[in-house]
Amino acid sequence: MTTLQKLTMVGERLLRDQLLDVLRRHGVSGWTITLAEGEGSRGVRASEWAGRNVQIDTLVSRETADAILEEVSERFFEDWALIAYTVEARVLRGDKYLS
Amino acid sequence: MTTLQKLTMVGERLLRDQLLDVLRRHGVSGWTITLAEGEGSRGVRASEWAGRNVQIDTLVSRETADAILEEVSERFFEDWALIAYTVEARVLRGDKYLS
Amino acid sequence: MTTLQKLTMVGERLLRDQLLDVLRRHGVSGWTITLAEGEGSRGVRASEWAGRNVQIDTLVSRETADAILEEVSERFFEDWALIAYTVEARVLRGDKYLS
Amino acid sequence: MEALADNLLSPVVLCFALGIAARLLRSDLSIPEPVYQGLSIYLLLAIGLKGGSALAVASPAEVALPAAMTLLAGVLTPVSAFYIMRRFGRLDATDSAAVAAHYGSVSVVTFLAAGEAVRRAGHAGEDFLPALVAVLEVPGIIVALLFAGSQASGSWKRALHEVATGKSIVLLAGGLLIGMVAGPGRLEGVQPFFTSAFQGALCLFMIELGLATGRRLRDLRHTGARLVVLGCLLPLFHGALGVVMGTLAGLSTGGAAVFGAMVGSASYIAAPAAVRVALPKANPACYLTLALGVTFPFNLAIGVPLFLKLASLLQNS
Amino acid sequence: MEALADNLLSPVVLCFALGIAARLLRSDLSIPEPVYQGLSIYLLLAIGLKGGSALAVASPAEVALPAAMTLLAGVLTPVSAFYIMRRFGRLDATDSAAVAAHYGSVSVVTFLAAGEAVRRAGHAGEDFLPALVAVLEVPGIIVALLFAGSQASGSWKRALHEVATGKSIVLLAGGLLIGMVAGPGRLEGVQPFFTSAFQGALCLFMIELGLATGRRLRDLRHTGARLVVLGCLLPLFHGALGVVMGTLAGLSTGGAAVFGAMVGSASYIAAPAAVRVALPKANPACYLTLALGVTFPFNLAIGVPLFLKLASLLQNS
Amino acid sequence: MEALADNLLSPVVLCFALGIAARLLRSDLSIPEPVYQGLSIYLLLAIGLKGGSALAVASPAEVALPAAMTLLAGVLTPVSAFYIMRRFGRLDATDSAAVAAHYGSVSVVTFLAAGEAVRRAGHAGEDFLPALVAVLEVPGIIVALLFAGSQASGSWKRALHEVATGKSIVLLAGGLLIGMVAGPGRLEGVQPFFTSAFQGALCLFMIELGLATGRRLRDLRHTGARLVVLGCLLPLFHGALGVVMGTLAGLSTGGAAVFGAMVGSASYIAAPAAVRVALPKANPACYLTLALGVTFPFNLAIGVPLFLKLASLLQNS
Ligand SMILES: Nc1ncnc2c1ncn2[C@@H]1O[C@H](COP(=O)(O)O)[C@@H](O)[C@H]1O
Ligand SMILES: Nc1ncnc2c1ncn2[C@@H]1O[C@H](COP(=O)(O)O)[C@@H](O)[C@H]1O
Ligand SMILES: Nc1ncnc2c1ncn2[C@@H]1O[C@H](COP(=O)(O)O)[C@@H](O)[C@H]1O
Ligand code: NA
Ligand code: NA
Ligand code: NA
Question: Do chains D and F touch (3 or more CB pairs under 8 A)?
Fold first, then answer.
């Protein structure tokens, strides 16, 4: 069991590919995506047709989490509906998710 | 980064609007909803037509979390299929979710 | 409020029934299932027709969590696309989920 | 006897059986929830449109009496269901009221299956019957909840809102209005979608109902033989009453049979949500198992042909 | 006047109204997202196939002028929308450009509703009109985004990719190509699905559009009367322009009316995603409310019959 | 040559190509999973109903020989696929068995596309062919898994359960039974839904298959040219065998061609789940890429017209 950070980002569906690109660039090896609906301070959504929110969970080391959060914060936080947070998780055979 | 509580409630779909009302009354500014299926001690569901379970995640301060949990516990726990728990989360620009 | 472990497993849809069997055998009283998509080191999926990933969340005691993780690790980790981790959670009336 | 067999061999009933069988075989077959809800929306809207377009060309006189009979049935059946459940079913007041709400309302799919069975037997129900379905859906629930009275720990106001603005009522009543306002002429363009495809779409829907019923069958053990027997007798009793009332209201043989099936059926769409909200302490395993696990298949297999037989006897005498 | 009433009583418009009403009644009615997206895919592909199979048998000469007019309209309307919004709407450059992108593009559902209204009135649009919808969808968005210029904090490249490979364009253009290549003969087998069922499927889609519009209606208060008025005048102005251009391009009365509805409509499928990506600072509540909350219902109820009237007047004079 | 072109221009094949193109263009087009599963359920049930209603009126004698040939093909093809993959494909026993299970079973969509191509070419397959699809689906998988023998680290029992109660078998076999029991007469009411709409629904399904194939195309690089070549030769070999067997079994020209396509096709619905469970160590990238990325498009574009040509040659000689 390794202690990692579960980084969760919930935001507009249109952000999906951009957020995954950020993950990839930070060397992240995997993620899980679920569809979500949501309300927030901005309440922005391009359209029904583009779909509701997307939630991306990824298990990463603390440093990777912080680096991703910083980039996401700078690039998307001002203009996009997005929330991001981390939770501490004990991961089975977690060393394979360290990058 | 602010440390907040991620409060999660999973319950019958019919509870959806009532639970969101509780959140609103406690001044909560946002939430994320996902559709879920589940099994539990009560195993109650009004009908297929009403849909499966609903999961509501919201990031709030510890006090708000406790206040919501208390109200939810009192009003819904006896008669409804519902589970509620909190997890500690470090939230990016989390001060905006403090209410 | 009781402190429990939220055990999360994300894996191929085909594993669904087997994972729930594991939970049942460990005396677990409830769980929540959501549909997810994902990418990981193995990237394996039997087919579109079998569906995407399944995410199973269950609140259990630390011992139960560890026992389940051990069994899951032995039986499924080598050949199947699966990730498993635990997060600490404060659960409302959580003693009913202790088994 | 032959009518019974013929009824059992219709694709709609067979698809229902396929769903039950798949569940018993532990197959992973399931209709995805959004598809199931999409089908429900389609079926309810189609029924509404059909009833509405019939109302647009029917004379009020023709419809008035059947509509009044429908309201009467909506008051009588929950009362009888409540007392029978209390007395012979040995349920407490809350559970009896919950069950009564289901038997006081109507099962849309039973209505559809009855219509098809009647048609196959060479009869035909009145075109405005779908409008009566909408009329029958709500009052029974309200009457039944009145019985629970102080037992109702849930919110009355929310329950009423739940019934009145629930999607099934909105779609049925909305479809009725649209059908009436637009009239048969303007509806022609949507006929291939809402009419020709209807029976096939119903088949898919029946598979999921079969799966859901299969799930309920396991609960029958806990329900007890007493309730299962009542779940068969109640629709017979209400159904026979319905056939008589339909005949008195001047419906044709086919119409009276379908009316009987409506009155004899138990709702599992509008009622469960309302009951769950108004009577959260009532036991869903009890009312859902009765409505979906016992009465629905009973009516589908046995009730409908019997009601048709009865209607023929009444009208030819 | 009568044409107006007739238009309002079509099932498609009534289903839209049902959606709005359900929202205002706070009903829990909703079309599940996957079903809604499935319906969109179906409608877009069906339109493409129809247009493509018409192109397969049309003479290039016949189509060339209307296509050129369509491109022209795709350049003119975003320019006029931008200046009107800037000047009379008092929006800043970014928001004006965002709104212009929507009015420069085309609303597929308005096109469909117009086609149906025209047909009911005894006219008929040219068979190749759906191909023009595909032509009109993109250029207006690009022209409008050019106005935003340096304001565009988002990525131009991504926005272009978003429009060009967005599912609506891929399905429309893909359907066109398939229809052209396969031709009417080979498409016969898929007609019952893509043609007969079309109007009914559109009705279901309209319910969800009504629900979405109902949600937007609440935002109208924040939008302000000034913008709401512009949201009605703009389609009138563009629509009339479209009718004139269509008539000049040699379209029939019905064709010119539908062309007017296309030009007068505001996109809420292709444009919003592109605008969100290119102009993330623009206010979605503003452009979406205008396009979906004001202009779409306006065109559906009032614009379409007016454009038909205008086309008749022009062509009979 | 002309038959080849004609086959490539059918809407079904073009929709498949649209899906591939959309993926290569990195479009966000996708059929939502519930819709895709709903379409699968519809297609499988429709095929079953069609085959079953044909069986209801066919003489047993007529069907017996083709059915026996089908079983024989279900035994021969996995054996040949296993040895060819082991010998020429240089795969280990587990991977060879996994591939063999796919080629031993049948691709329902290839069957459908072949039927349509044959019909367009003016021929017609026997009505009971869909029943043979159900017969061909399972045995090949079982035979192939026998080869894996001790390699099978997964559970045999679970794999068998997975195949036998998997939704595709339940729907196909259930549809067959319903079709047989109900017979063509009682099925009439559901024809508009299950028959007229069939080809159009197949088009939507093909878009998603194209998207999935497009995803697999990227994996081709890792698969290696050797396997890709085998993925083209194997269906040719099996398909030719199937045409001969079909002709020997007394099928018509069209029937033998469709039978060849069935035998030459590789399953990607029933087989993958069973193989994943029984042989979790086998490499899905290998067997899925071969079945879906190579053999399916190969058969769709080239195999089917060749089988028809071969069947014509055989039967006219
Ligand atoms: N306090 C919160 N707790 C949980 N999820 C939230 C919260 N606030 C916002 N969200 C989610 O983040 C998305 C974007 O929020 P925002 O950027 O505040 O509009 C919303 O649609 C929700 O899904
Ligand atoms: N131990 C558990 N862990 C995770 N989710 C649970 C657990 N128990 C119940 N749930 C969820 O909470 C819902 C209601 O549970 P209950 O009130 O116990 O019937 C279930 O349908 C599950 O989705
Ligand atoms: N680092 C990660 N963070 C979150 N989810 C992951 C991660 N890696 C894998 N997953 C999920 O686990 C599934 C199986 O992963 P794998 O076994 O690595 O192929 C993937 O499809 C993802 O849904
Ligand atoms: Na009743
Ligand atoms: Na426009
Ligand atoms: Na084969």
Answer: yes
Provide the pLDDT confidence category of residue C52 given band limits of 50, 70 and 90. Answer: confident
Q: Tell whether the model's pLDDT for residue A46 goes beyond 60.
A: no
Q: What residues of chain F lie within 8 A of the CB of D9, using their CB?
A: 181-183, 186
Q: What is the ipTM score, two decimals?
A: 0.93
Q: Does B8 touch chain A (CB under 8 A)?
A: no
Is E120 in Cβ contact with D174 (below 8 Å)? no
Nearest-by-CA chain C residue for A33 = C37
pLDDT for the residue numbered A44: 54
Rounded CA separation D125/D72 (Å)? 20
Q: Specify the pTM.
A: 0.94
pLDDT band at E261 (very low <50, low <70, confident <90, very high): very high
Q: Are F190 and D11 a contacting pair at CB < 8 A?
A: yes
Nearest CA residue ID for atom 22, ligand 1: A38
Residue in chain A lying closest to B87 (CA):
A87
pLDDT higher than 80, residue D300: yes
CA of E188 to nearest chain F CA: how many angstroms apart? 10
Q: Which of D238-247, F178-187, F217-226 has the lowest mean pLDDT?
A: F217-226
Q: How far is B64 from chain C (nearest CA, A)?
A: 14
- C6 chain-B contacts, CB cut-off 8 A: 85, 87
Quote the ligand 6 centre to F76 CA distance (angstroms).
10
Q: Report residues near ion ligand 6: CB below 5 Å.
A: F 77, 265
A54 CA: distance to closest CA in chain E (Å): 13
- In the block, residue with structure tokens 């990981």: C40
Measured distance CA(F128)–CA(F258) in Å, rounded? 12
Ligand closest to B29 (CA) is: 1
Residue B38 near ligand 2, beta carbon < 6 Å: yes
What residue owns the CA closest to ligand 3's atom 7? A30
F66-78 pLDDT per residue, tens: 999 999 999 999 9
Residues of B in contact with A10 (CB under 8 A): 32
SS3 state of residue A41: coil
| Ligand 1 binding pocket includes B57 (Cβ within 6 Å) | yes
Which residue segments constitute the domains of chain F, with CATH numbers given?
2-25+32-316 (1.20.1530.20)
Per-residue pLDDT at E150 exceeds 80: no
The ranges assigned to domains in chain C are 2-97
* Ligand index nearest the alpha carbon of residue D75: 4
Average pLDDT over residues E143-156: 75
Determine, for residues A34 and C39 on separate chains, whether the beta-carbon distance falls below 8 Å: no
> H/E/C letters for each residue in chain E?
CHHHHHHHCCHHHHHHHHHHHHHHCCCCCCCCHHHHHHHHHHHHHHHHHHHHHHHHHCCHHHHHHHHHHHHHHHHHHHHHHHHHHHHCCCCCHHHHHHHHHHHHCCCHHHHHHHHHHHHHCCCCCCCCHHHHHHHHHCHHHHHHHHHHHHHCCCCHHHHHHHHHHCHHHHHHHHHHHHHHHHHHHHHHHHHHHHHHCHHHHHHHHHHHHHHHHHHHHCCHHHHCHHHHHHHHHHHHHHHHHHHHHHHHCCCCHHHHHHHHHHHHCCCCCHHHHHHHHHCCCCCHHHHHHHHHHHHHHHHHHHHHHHHHHHHHHHHHC
Supply the CATH classification number for the domain A2-97: 3.30.70.120
Interface residues from chain B to D (CB-CB < 8 Å):
12, 14, 18, 35, 44-52, 79-80
For residues F95-110, give the mean pLDDT.
96
